[in-house]
Amino acid sequence: MTKNATDKQALGRVLRASTASFTAGCRTLEDDLPIFGSLVQAERSDGAAVYGLIYDVRVDDDPFVRQLIAAGDLSEEYVQDQRQRRQVPVEVNVLVVGGRDKAGQVYHYLPPQPPATLSWVTVCSSDQVRQFGGRLDFLRTVLDAADAPADELAAASLRHAAAAQGDSVQAQRYLQDAGRELARLLSRDPARLSGILQRMRGAV
Predict the structure, then answer these.
(1) Res 80 pLDDT > 90
(2) pLDDT band with cut points at 50, 70 and 90 for residue 161
(3) Spatial distance between the Cα atoms of 35 and 25, rounded to a whole number of angstroms
(4) How far is CA 203 from CA 31, 180, 198, in A?
(5) b/e per residue, 184-201, with b = 16+ CB within 10 A?
(6) Are strands 49-59 and 2-3 parallel, antiparallel or unpaired?
(7) How many structural domains are present in the chain?
(8) Using one digit for the tens of pLDDT, what is the confidence trace for 166-192?
C-alpha cells in the first residue's frame, strides 16, 4: 500500500460509488493485499468521511499475465520483478456502514451522499476502529447486505474490531458484547447465529 499526502495508509482511490457501497482501485503487491473485513474510509475534501468494510478483493484479468503463464515456467525472481514493475489491476469492494461528519462525529447509518470519484480510500487506524466499533449498530447493515457475504463479513469485522481493543481481556469482552447483540438481532434464526459465532472464535 502507498502513503498519501497526509501520510495515512492509502488503499487507493474511489472508482465508482453508490449510497450503500463503493469500489476502490489500487495497485498492490500480493503480500500487501487489502484484508477482508477491514474498516476503511473514503475521505472528502470538507473533512468528512464515509466508512465501510472490505467485502471483496478482485484482481482483474491481465492479458500480459495470460501471455506469461502460457510461456511456461517462470522464475520467482522474474515473477517478483513483474509484480513490482507492472500496474497490477486490483479492485476492492466496500460495504458502506457509516461515516464521520465535518465536525468529527461518527455515525452508524448510510451517509447522505456517496464518496466522490477519485477520493482517497485509507485504512482506518486502530483508534478509528475502536471508536467506530464502540457501538454495534453497524451489524444490522452488515447482516442485511444483499451483495456481500454477510455472515462472513460480520464475523471478520468483529474479529478485526476485537483485535483493535488493546489487550486480550478487552477483546474478549468486546466479542461477548457483540455476541449478545447478534443474539438479539438473530433471535429468530438460531442456525445463522450459531454459524456467525463459530466464525468469531479464535479471534483472541
Answers:
(1) no
(2) very high
(3) 14
(4) 21, 16, 11
(5) ebbeeeeebbeebbebbe
(6) unpaired
(7) 1
(8) 899 999 999 999 999 999 999 999 999
| 14/115 Cα distance (integer angstroms) | 7
Q: What are phi and psi for residue 76, nearest 5 degrees?
A: -60, -35
Domain that holds residue 37: 2-200
In this structure, are residues 126 and 164 in contact, taking their beta carbons and an 8 Å threshold? Answer: yes
Q: Confidence class of residue 7 from pLDDT cuts 50, 70 and 90?
A: very low
Kindly report the pTM of this predicted structure: 0.85
Nearest to 38 by CA among 55, 23, 59, 21: 55
Distance CA 13, CA 117 (A): 7
Q: Cell 500500500 appears where?
A: 1
DSSP H helices, 58-133, are 63-70, 76-85, 126-133
Cβ-count burial of 57 within 10 angstroms (0-12 exposed, 13-18 middle, 19+ buried)?
middle
Q: Are 143 and 154 in contact (CB under 8 A)?
A: yes
pLDDT digits (tens, 9 = 90+) for 105-153: 999 999 999 999 999 999 999 999 999 999 999 999 999 999 999 999 9
